Amino acid sequence: MKPQYLLVACFLLCIACKKETQEQGTLQLTFNNTVNGVPLSLNTTHYTNAAGENFTITTFKYYISNVSMIRMDNSEMAVPAAYYLVDEANAASKTIQLPAPAGEYRGIIFYLGVDSVHNVSGAQTGALDPVNGMFWSWNSGYIMAKLEGISPVSTAPNNQLTFHIGGFKVPWSAVQQVKLMSPISVTVGQGHKPQITVAADAYTWFSQPNLIRFQTISTIHVPGEDAWKISMNYRNMFRITNVTDL
After folding, report:
1. Cβ-count burial 168-188 (b if 16+ within 10 Å, e if not)
2. How many Cα neighbours within 13 Å face the side chain of 130?
3. Which residues pair with 100 in a beta bridge?
4. Residue 162 placed within a domain
5. Rounded to an integer, what distance in angstroms lies between the CA atom of residue 4 and that of residue 118?
6. Dihedrals φ, ψ of 140, to 5°?
7. String of b and e for 215-238 (b: at least 16 CB within 10 Å)?
8. Residue 229, C-beta contacts closer than 8 angstroms, at least 6 positions apart
9. What is d(CA 1, CA 12) in angstroms, rounded to the nearest whole number?
10. d(Cα 146, Cα 142) in Å, to the nearest integer?
11. pTM recorded for the entire structure
12. pLDDT one-digit tens code per residue, 35-83
């Protein structure tokens, strides 16, 4: 091999090694669930939806997956693929530790729900284990997000509200992408473990852009237009409320 070609090969090898050994850090995401800005309290607190109907919430869960970081130049950096189930009844589930490449970032992107590949892979483990109550069947796959409760105007038995939102096939896919920009830059790496606090407002499920009245819709158990409408609403439920360096 000629010397000049050898130098080029060594240079490319060094670049590859550098990429493989890129410094890794940790980003902590903490989700605070709310209803119209008020902290969510299961079973006890009474809330009012956008249609003026009263309700309480007994169950509130949703999947976070396929996370990417937004660099300062607006390019995206994917973090290792993982699936997280945020469950209001499980305080530990509301804090997620994300391995992320060292660097400075200005935002975060994630999907609310489970992608089509994992929806057709059958019952799985971890956050995707059926024991978590978020798996329908091999045909319809995973529930992306779940809200259950009670409303005096619900026509379902015992005035129940049951919103099991799923479906991954067009045109009624309930998998929604969420993009959040941070008010300040976020640095991941040695000496920096940023924490991003995200508010998730259940009020949005029934407001914009699709007003949902419990008198009309109080139960959703299958993919379809009603589930898709709520997914179009709940993709707006997240906002960053605080950024700190732990």
Report:
1. beeebbbbbebeeebeeebbb
2. 10
3. 25
4. yes
5. 48
6. -100, -10
7. eebbbbeebeebbbbbbebbbebb
8. 210, 212
9. 15
10. 10
11. 0.89
12. 999 999 999 999 999 999 999 999 999 999 999 999 999 999 999 889 9
Given a contact cutoff of 8 angstroms between Cβ atoms, the answer to whether 63 and 229 are in contact is no
CA–CA distance, 216 with 54 (Å, rounded to integer): 14
* Residue 1 CB contacts under 8 Å (≥ 6 apart), including other chains: 9
Work out how many domains the chain is built from and give that number. Answer: 1
- Mind giving me the DSSP string for 144-210? EEEEEEE-TT--SGGGEEEEEEE--STTS---EEEEEEEEEEEEEBTTB-EEEEEEEEGGGGGSSSS
Residue 28 forms part of a structural domain? yes
Q: Name the one residue in this structure whose structure tokens are 């509130």.
A: 60
For the residues of 113-162, what is the DSSP string, one character each?
S--HHHHTS-S-SGGG-GGGS-EEETTTEEEEEEEEEE-TT--SGGGEEE
Tell me the pLDDT tens digit for each residue of 182-206: 999 999 998 888 999 999 999 999 9
194 occurs within a structural domain: yes
CB 26 within 8 A of CB 79: no
Range of the domain at 216: 23-245
SS3 234: helix
Query: Does residue 8 lie in a domain region?
Result: no
